[in-house]
Every structure is written in C-alpha cells, then in structure tokens.
Write a structure and sequence with these properties.
alpha+beta; about 15% strand; DNA-binding; single chain
Length: about 350
DNA sequence: AAGGCGTGGTG
DNA sequence: TCACCAAGCCT
C-alpha cells in the first residue's frame, strides 16, 4: 500500500484543485466549511455546489449564524440544489452544534453520526479533512477507484463490504500521515481521472500498480452494477391561480417527503400511469382552464412527471373556500422576483404565469 | 434493507 | 439530445 499512498499524494500535491472550502496546502480548514461542503456534495457534483457554498457562507458566515437562520430563508437559499432533506437536517444539526457543542465540531465519528444528515461517509470525511485524523473515507469515488484498482467482481451494493476491506488497508493509520489529503486525493482521482465513463488511465498516477490495467480489463465496467429499472410515469396538474389584485396562490409543501418544506405552485396529486387525477377538493366548483400547449415535465430520481398547466382567475382570496392553511398568496411581482426560491420543477412554470 | 429522495454536469 | 449518475442519508 505504500506505493499507492506515495504516488497518489505526489499526484495530489501537483494537481490539487483550489476549492472554496479547501484550506491552503498544509493549513487547517474551517470545520464549518468542511461540514457544509460535505453535506452539499452528497450526490452532487463540485461544479453545482460551488455557487451555493459561496452564497451560504456569505449569508451565514459561522455555524451560529446558520443556527439562527430563518428556516424559510435557508430552504430558499438551498432551492435548486435538490435533496431538500439535506437542508432541513443542516439546520437541525447547526442548532445542535451551536447549542450543545458551543459551535465546536465533535471529533469522533460516533458523535458526528448522531447529527442529522451525517452518516458513515460524512462523519469519516469530517474526521479526516477537518480534523486531519485517520478515518476510512468511502464515497462513490473511492468505491470506483477500489473496484478497479483491485478488480472487484462482486456486484454493487454487495461489493461494499469487500471494498471496505481494501479501503481499510489504504487508510491504515500506520502509514497514513496525511489523512485529510489522502481522502481528498482518492476522491479527486475518482472525480477527475478514474471517472465512471471513459477514465483517463494514461494520466493516472497509479496506473502501473492498477490491477485492471495489468489485466487489460475494461475499467468502465467497474464497479459491477445491477441493471437499472425503468422510471415510472406520473401525471397531474399544476395551477396558476390569480386574483384581480395580482396575487398568486402558492403551496407550502409538507415537511417530509418529496420537495419537503419547499414552497411552489399548487398541484394536484401525481398519479402513476397514463391517466390524470381529479383536481384537489379545494377547487370544487371552480373550473380551472387548461393552458394550451403548456406541459411541465420533470425527471426525478425514481419517476418522471408530466403536469398539465391550468389557469384560474378569481375575484379575490375569499373566492376559494376551504383552502387549507398550507396555501399562501403572494404578489405576482414577488413570485417572479423570487423565482429562484423555488425548486427547479416550479421554476419551470414561472414563465407561464405572465399571460 | 430496499426504496425514497433532485438536479444538473458530463460525454 | 439524452442517458447516465454524482463527495449519501434515512427509514
């Protein structure tokens, strides 16, 4: 393992990327920055995270500022980044760190994993990167690098146990003198060289030791994965409802579940299959009219959604009886001005509320 | 423990 | 253009 360790760190020192949350070489990073970036980086590429990270640090420079943040402002700032449970958990964890830890991040994996949104990977990453202590940091990049370097034939996710056994050797504290750099080096290698498709093996610092190269196998076929299921289709309606005074109806979604805690345009239920659902009960007796040729399509991780757009003009707010308290009115100008407070699915509809 | 959970970078 | 899938966590 010594050869791998030295080669990859030598490569890292030459190719180290400058990132907003990364300290200068040899300096200790801000734990708050490390944690915030790691949460944002969960299932999300670096390029997408950078502007959000900058915005959060500008708005909330310390963990205490984030703990004191207005929840709706925090969710609005996260809008567009996806996986909104991360934002809800971020705020909960910030309060816990600010209050019970006085703003000092715990330095054991066990304590970190008690914080919402921090699991096996993120706790190890914080130990290694923020505290520069040895930890077995395994993310998708590390899994890919290990599965190729050691030619692991078992299929994911079952292969995780075997991958971990190799990773434990790689991260062995007996030789790991630069825990933070080593973890980031392997992840950077996975993100930039040992990529999922068409990896640049010719530029790899450990190509001469990599078993998949030695065996002339196909790296892009590793890690072995199960065949993916096709996404199901769901259908529904999205509504532009506006008063004569120019107020637009919005819906604050439930805290749990899809788009939890986010505000968007009202929708019907979304039903699986090729048929469309009924309009929601609070629209009883009012007949929203189809907006010709406007279909909002959106792809989620586990289904594809098509929503037919409908419009309803009402005299005033009282025109809709039995409207649940989770629905709110906002001026059309504010809706357009604050477009980016919406998740992407609802941003797509904003251009259509002007006619 | 398998499935829910978003979005945009990438080739 | 479009399929793939990412620095995972939670239940």
């Amino acid at each position: 393992m010594g050869g791998f360790y030295n080669d990859i760190l030598e490569w890292y020192d030459r190719h180290r990327r400058v990132l907003p949350w990364r300290a200068e070489a040899g300096k200790k990073p801000d734990s708050y920055h490390v944690w915030l970036s790691e949460i944002m980086l969960q299932q999300t590429v670096v390029a997408a995270v950078i502007p959000y990270f900058q915005k959060f640090v500008d708005k909330w420079p310390t963990i205490h500022d984030l703990a004191d943040a207005d929840p709706d402002a925090l969710m609005a700032a996260w809008a567009g980044l996806g996986y909104y449970a991360r934002a809800r958990n971020l705020h909960k964890a910030a309060k816990m760190i600010s209050d019970t830890y006085s703003g000092i991040f715990p330095d054991t994996e066990q304590a970190l994993k008690k914080l919402p949104g921090i699991g096996d990977y993120t706790s190890a990453a914080i130990i290694a990167i923020a505290h520069d202590k040895p930890a077995v940091v395994i993310d998708g990049n590390v899994e890919r690098v290990m599965s190729r370097f050691f030619v692991i034939e078992s299929q994911m996710p079952a292969a995780k146990a075997e991958i971990r056994r190799y990773a434990v050797q790689i991260y062995d504290p007996a030789h790991n003198r630069r825990p933070g750099d080593l973890a980031q080096a392997i992840m950077d290698l996975g993100a930039g060289i040992c990529t999922p498709q068409s990896p640049s093996c010719g530029n790899c610092p450990v190509q001469s030791r990599c078993r998949i190269i030695l065996e002339a196998a196909s790296p892009e076929e590793y890690p072995r994965k199960a065949i993916k299921k096709t996404k199901k289709q769901r259908r529904g309606y999205i509504y532009h409802i506006e008063t004569e005074a120019g107020e637009v109806l919005l819906e604050k979604r439930a805290e749990k579940g899809l788009l939890g805690g986010m505000t968007g345009f009202p929708t019907s239920e979304w039903v699986t299959g090729s048929s469309y659902p009924d309009h929601p009960g609070w629209l009883e007796g009012l007949s929203p009219a189809p907006i010709k040729n406007v279909l909002i399509k959106h792809v989620f991780t586990h289904f594809e959604l098509s929503m037919k757009a409908c419009r309803l003009r009402v005299a005033d707010k009282d025109s809709i009886r039995n409207l649940p308290a989770t629905y709110i009115w906002r001026s059309k100008s504010a809706v357009i001005d604050r477009k980016n407070d919406f998740p992407t699915i609802f941003r797509k509809f904003v251009p259509f509320i002007n006619s």
